[in-house]
Backbone:
């Protein structure tokens, strides 16, 4: 064993390696991405590792490995679980042979997600167990236990850390060397592995009998804990346990119960916790999961215990908890004053706001600007998608009218076309998102004869989540260089007749391409091809000559963060400028020039 | 030792590296360490913080409000933004050089950091560092080591400058080690000459 100072996600990855995992697959998504990346960086001989094209693919790859007796892990963020839910729901009926852990990272806040959905709900919906770690150290151990339970009950299990676990660092004792588990291989048995209505019925019955047993088993699980004593109890799960512990560390006369396995609910354990208790508060994030379970338990056994939490209005319904919020809620619960700490800051001066923006030199800025220029004065719809380019919504670009979920821009553009025949409907999609969930949308457009323009913002990487490779990059997580999957060929194959590839940094060509496509019927595709500035060497820097008339057009039109005002005059921040040259093509008096 | 240190700045200023250096130095001295960083969307020119919690009595990965012993700020407004985390008798090490928000050129506010520095001075004990002066020609990429040096020089971190230098040697890419050590020692000297 050795101590390593690692992130929660790395603890999950190394815990899985220590548990002898054989196959790991996933799709990037904050806060889960570093799990697969950690496995890539650490020695993992004999382990198969891939970034899959999307979460559904990832889960299916892992499922077959688990059918064969291998241990498999699949990673994603919570909204990715929506994509993977189709195979997951069926897999829950079929079950597995080797241990299979589905890591779905929740994001209370939300800090970088579209929803505040709760993976614990998904576990109950799919009728499979879920593990909820409350620290990186615990996550390291718990992932192995998750594999063991999965094998014991031949079921896939969910593992749901939250952002504050995934991205917290701690010193974790990790095993020096681990080797992948030996496994039997797939044994054909169509009665077991082919899902038919009759099998589903039988297995549904089996699952409903089994789950209360797992609940009993979980009642003895070492990570469901009860500390302290008294007539008041705090039930907490995940990171909220750490927050509660922080507050209660000097207050012994309150019980602190941690629910590490919210489903199947460890009822026997909870009944023990409730002995001598007359009031409970539940501290949890996202949804009142434990609270509802407690209400049910109290109701079923006719206990005279008051349950407080989100449902009773004592805990906020949305957003993430914090140590301070926990202190506030818990001091109210036990009738203590909230200790006044820190400075009084009511006279704080207004602070500069720092919204995230597209990087200086980002080619997406140029793509959006070209479309904006070409469509001046025409009614158009700009359907966005998930990725860095969602930031195209910011002023002065203002080029994202909608953003719903991965791949939705392509199909929503078609929907707008159905209700407004004269509007020009655009869909902006990144290369990684195109592969993940854009392709079927394009087929839908071709088949149903939609008029739309697909703009693929191809920067040759998955930028938002930290530059993971994808099918278009020609690199895999096994370290192989493979043939790049061509977006153009895919589009041709699907029957898109008009496909143009332009360099967005050549503004007039890009504008002309958009204009041409806007006047054509059917599905048109423009591939704006230019690499992400974070993965290429900058071309140089530009400077502003004394021809500048200080009209500020460059700033007002594109909002590149490298264009600044210095003593009232437009200037270039040399530390940020990449020399993309977009501003030089906008300046009316040619005052901006390169010095490459 | 129980010690809560908050490192803050603007995305791209090297707060993450600085906090790794502090955390690993504290660990090398035999302490239990937890920390948490801003990761994701906010990294792009947004406000970033690292919370470092040293000692066995810390459970939450984030420092509770009013509990930080020290704030190390790479930017004046970011120091003020995080002052609510500081203890009543806490101490701030802050860089005088402002980072204008990326939207400044579109919506001018005239932000220059001066008001922020004044506010910090009014509220708590602090050491104001001019990282630009310390780093000279080396430039903004080395601000983090200069400020870290100054922080170490105040003696408030509970971590010796030697332990931090050892981490610089172990964690910074080879070709930047000397320059980082140089600005670190300049920061250190400035703090030592300062009447704390
Ligand atoms: S060339 Fe102009 S638009 Fe491009 S990064 Fe530099 S300042 Fe920004
Ligand atoms: S657009 Fe050209 S003339 Fe106008 S402010 Fe910018 S550099 Fe100067």
Residues:
């Amino acid at each position: 064993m050795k101590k390593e100072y690692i992130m929660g996600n790395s603890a999950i990855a190394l815990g899985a390696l220590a548990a002898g995992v054989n196959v790991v697959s996933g799709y990037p998504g904050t806060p889960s991405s570093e799990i697969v990346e950690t496995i890539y960086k650490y020695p993992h001989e004999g382990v198969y590792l891939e970034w899959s094209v999307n979460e559904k693919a990832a889960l299916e790859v892992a499922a077959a490995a688990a059918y064969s007796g291998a241990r498999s892990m699949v990673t994603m963020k919570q909204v990715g679980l929506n994509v993977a839910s189709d195979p997951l729901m069926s897999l829950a009926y079929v079950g597995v042979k080797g241990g299979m852990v589905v890591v779905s990272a929740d994001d209370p806040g939300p800090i970088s997600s579209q929803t505040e959905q709760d993976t614990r709900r998904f576990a109950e919906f799919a009728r499979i167990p879920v593990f909820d770690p409350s620290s990186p150290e615990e996550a390291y151990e718990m992932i192995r236990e998750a594999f063991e339970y999965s094998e014991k009950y031949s079921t896939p299990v969910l593992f749901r850390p939250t952002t504050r676990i995934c991205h917290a660092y701690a010193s974790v004792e990790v095993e020096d060397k681990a080797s992948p588990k030996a496994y039997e291989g797939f044994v054909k048995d169509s009665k077991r592995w082919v899902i038919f209505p009759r099998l589903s019925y039988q297995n549904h019955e089996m699952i409903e009998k089994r789950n209360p047993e797992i609940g009993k088993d979980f009642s003895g699980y070492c990570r469901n804990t009860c500390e302290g004593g008294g007539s008041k109890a705090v039930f907490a799960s995940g990171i909220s346990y750490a927050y509660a512990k922080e507050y209660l560390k000097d207050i012994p006369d309150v019980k602190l119960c941690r629910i590490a396995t919210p489903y199947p609910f460890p009822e026997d354990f909870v009944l023990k916790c409730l002995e001598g208790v007359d009031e409970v508060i539940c501290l949890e994030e996202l949804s009142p999961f434990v609270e509802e379970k407690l209400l049910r338990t109290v109701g079923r056994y006719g206990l005279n215990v008051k349950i407080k939490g989100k449902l009773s209005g004592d805990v906020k319904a949305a957003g993430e908890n914090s140590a301070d919020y926990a202190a506030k809620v818990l001091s109210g619960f036990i009738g203590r004053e909230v200790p006044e700490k820190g400075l009084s800051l009511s006279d704080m001066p207004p602070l500069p706001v720092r919204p995230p923006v597209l990087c200086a030199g980002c080619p997406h800025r140029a793509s959006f600007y070209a479309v904006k220029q070409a469509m001046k004065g025409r009614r158009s719809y700009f359907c966005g998608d998930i990725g860095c380019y969602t930031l195209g919504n910011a002023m002065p670009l203002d080029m994202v009218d909608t953003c719903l979920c991965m791949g939705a821009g392509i199909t929503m553009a078609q929907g707008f076309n159905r209700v407004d025949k004269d509007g020009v409907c655009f869909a902006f999609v990144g290369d990684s998102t195109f592969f993940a969930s854009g392709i079927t949308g394009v087929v839908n457009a071709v088949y149903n004869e939609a008029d739309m323009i697909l703009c693929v913002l191809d920067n040759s990487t998955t930028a938002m989540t930290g530059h993971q490779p994808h099918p278009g990059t020609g690199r895999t997580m096994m370290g192989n260089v493979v043939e790049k999957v061509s977006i153009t060929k895919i589009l041709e194959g699907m029957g898109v007749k008009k496909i143009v590839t332009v360099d967005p940094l050549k503004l007039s060509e890009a504008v002309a391409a958009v204009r041409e496509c806007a006047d054509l019927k059917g599905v048109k595709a423009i591939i704006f091809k230019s690499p992400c500035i974070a993965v290429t060497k900058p071309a140089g820097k530009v400077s502003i000559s004394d021809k500048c008339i200080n009209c500020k057009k460059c700033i007002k039109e594109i909002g590149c963060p490298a264009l600044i005002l210095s003593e009232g005059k437009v200037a270039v921040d040399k530390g940020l400028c990449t020399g993309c040259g977009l501003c030089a093509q906008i300046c009316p008096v040619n005052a901006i020039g390169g010095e490459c | 030792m129980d010690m809560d240190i908050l490192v803050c700045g603007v995305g791209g200023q090297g707060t993450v590296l600085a906090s790794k250096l502090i955390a690993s130095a504290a660990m090398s001295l035999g302490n239990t360490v937890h920390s948490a960083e801003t990761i994701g969307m906010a990294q792009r020119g947004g406000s970033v913080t690292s919370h470092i919690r040293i000692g066995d009595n810390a459970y939450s990965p984030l420092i509770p409000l009013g509990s930080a012993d020290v704030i190390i700020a790479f930017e004046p407004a970011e120091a003020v933004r995080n002052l609510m985390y500081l203890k009543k008798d806490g101490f701030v090490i802050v860089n005088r050089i402002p980072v204008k928000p990326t939207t400044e050129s579109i919506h001018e506010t005239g932000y220059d950091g001066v008001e922020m520095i004044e506010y910090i001075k009014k509220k708590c004990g602090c050491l104001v560092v001019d990282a630009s002066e310390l780093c000279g020609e080396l430039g903004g990429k080395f601000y983090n080591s200069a400020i870290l040096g100054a922080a170490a020089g105040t003696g408030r971190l509970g971590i010796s400058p030697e332990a931090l230098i050892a981490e610089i040697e172990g964690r910074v890419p080879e070709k930047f080690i000397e320059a980082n050590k140089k600005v670190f020692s300049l920061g250190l000297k400035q703090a030592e000459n300062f009447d704390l």
Q: What stands out?
A: The beta strands of chain B are 3-10, 33-37, 47-54, 68-73, 86-95, 125-129. Chain B has one domain: 3-99+111-192.
